[in-house]
Amino acid sequence: MKKYSILMQREFAIIVALFVMLIVFTIVDPIYISSGNLLDIIEQSTINGLLAIGITFAIITGGIDLSVGSTFAIVIVTVGNMLKAGVPPFVAVLIGLVLGYLLGVVNGLLVTQMRLQPFIATLGTMSVYRGIAYVITGGWPVLSMPSTYRKMLDGDLIGDIPVSVLILFAFAFVGYIYLKYLRAGMHLYAIGNNEEATRLSGVNVDRLKTMAYGVCGVGAALSGMILLARLGTGEPTAGQGYELNAIAAAAIGGTSLAGGKGSMLGTLLGAVLLSALKVGLIVAGVDTFWQFIATGLIIIIAAYFEIIQDKIQVAGYGR
Amino acid sequence: MPDITFTHISKQFPGVKALQDVSFSIKQGEVHALVGENGAGKSTLLNILHGVYPEYDGEISLFGTPVHFRNTHEAIQQGVAKVHQEVSLVQSLSIGQNILLGYEPRKGRFIDYKNLHAKAQALLDELQLDLKSEHSIYGLSTGEMQMISIAKAMYHKVSLLSLDEPTASLSNRETEVLFSLIKRLKQAGITILYVSHRLEEIFEVADRVTVLRDGQYIGTFETRDINREQLIRRMVGRDVSAFAQRLQGRVASSEVVLEARHLTKKQVFEDISFSLRKGEILGFSGLVGAKRTDVMKCLFGAEQLTSGEIFMAGKKISINTPQQAVAAGIGLIPENRKTEGVIKNISNEDNVGISCMHKFLRWRFVNHGRKRENFLSFVPVLHLTPPDPAYATSQLSGGNQQKIILARWLSTDAEVLILDEPTKGIDVGAKAEIYHLLEELVHTGKSIIMVSSELPEIIGMCDRVVVMHEGKKQAELEAHELEEETILHYAMGGVQ
To answer: Is this complex scored with an ipTM above 0.85?
Structure first.
């Protein structure tokens, strides 16, 4: 891989940004640094974090998945309906995961078999999946989820560590192992950097890409089921626009939309950064409208950071 | 008065001295060739001259006045322009629009197309190019696009024009047209700085030649006072036979490893049959458009056959995907290293290991140490530089990139290696190394199919040669029948 010193690595830059934020918001209101608030920041980042980790897989292959917010909604209403019908929570969650995976695989097949551009393919399924979520519920929300389910996904485990946070970390950890230590992971980066050369190296590019979209669907499913547990109700409108936050977290974390570059830690930190900013602005009593502006600026700054990084790289190694 | 003088030019990159104290001058109106192996510093020198690298030590003077270009734009304004190795034209615009891009004449706020095409056409006519300004760029040959790039440079009234590997993707005829254009430019008093790996061209077109080696200036010679061998010796600093030849004797056995029967891809090629024996180098010769690459891609499963049969060791196999080809023991080293071979931003060890990651698994996880060892095991065999497993392959020289791809297939234990134009764009020293490696490989029992457009390479290296012409097999020649005239006769469609 490219060789940067640790100081030039994206993850390090985000950690520095997080510390700066921590100091600034703590000066504004010391409550920001309380353990309860910090845990809250992480917990707030789980919904977006899980989506972002999934989408990182699609982006690494040089693709994108705009349909994650809609997949999220389908899983919410399906799992919600199953729970209402008395399906045991554990079974419902498994079915939810498989459903998310399959919806992702459909995207993958559109991209690899019909050769559609990922942006267009998932723009299409974004609308189709959203429609399906409405059709399933007739437009009505699914109400009053059983408390066993809610505890299972949104309760506290050891101490007051929320289950959702553990799920986020576990998903990121599995993703990390996958990308770093499974040969499929190395192949995904290769596909993003030069798909044709990877194909000519004898790698089954279509299968891997399809699977990457599947992972994207699994992230959406996990995320949706946690929101369902957290709110106790599931709406077919849930998750609208979430794909953009997920892409933002991945991009802030150093995932290149051109493909071939990105890491689980980066995406995770990107999601936490967005969440820390949001919570901080609330603590500071800043009008919510400003959140949009701040989020946008962070994305732009992160992207510019990348340009500077590349310039240094070129100056260092170009010949 | 020399047109351009370089005085004590040095350029340092972190860890590498790209140029060290280079001084020489170029006379006005001459064609001055710049030669050296990859990594000798030719590109660095061009980039400094044209303002791409504004930071360097030393001094450049233009007609006796010191100049220091901070960007290419400044260089062009002073009459110093470069035609890029890869042609950069806008596909959707017409020829005239491309030539005057950024300098379109206007009438009020609108582009004055009549004036634009008149100006462009006048220039095209002056350069005696048979092109119409209104025509689209789309569909033109690489050669024609190169002419347009030169015309574009001429529009800016340049006094010095650099051509960086201008003939790399030109046919013989296009090369001739380019050379006659260069001669006309020279007559018009324009100085040409000509960078090429093809020594024949340098002797044909250049007045003087400057040799660089490892960033150092070796010397400037009149082309009529030096011969090819002397020039090569100065480039590599040692005596190597740049000529492809078998040094270790031939080892082809009678055992057939791979047999292709009646391979046909509709409207591309038809009825191609051949067999490859163990330890043999089977050449595929032909002109551009003979569809040799398509045959190879089908053999490797990257493109689909319409009909035909493939046998490996006497057993019929079907190859529809590259995975099946790899499983059958076939490896492909594609023609376009950059787009089909090397994976950018990926380290050497990954580029080498990508086709056989299963070998590095411990339980189901990739053992990065084994992957690294695999790379390192090829370093002494292939003389890879730098021998750094973490180095990005796309930053290496062409020759080393080719060796990385070769190592990729050697890692898979492929029995049959298909090499498509293996020495394209590679410097002399690396070429000789590649030839040597191919010979080593057949000695270890591998079998090789080599597609090449370089006749000396085909004649010197191959045991047998299939000659193709426009999608058909025209002839199959044995080693003793290999002569340039014979091969060209069949390649141009001649019959037995």
So the answer is: no
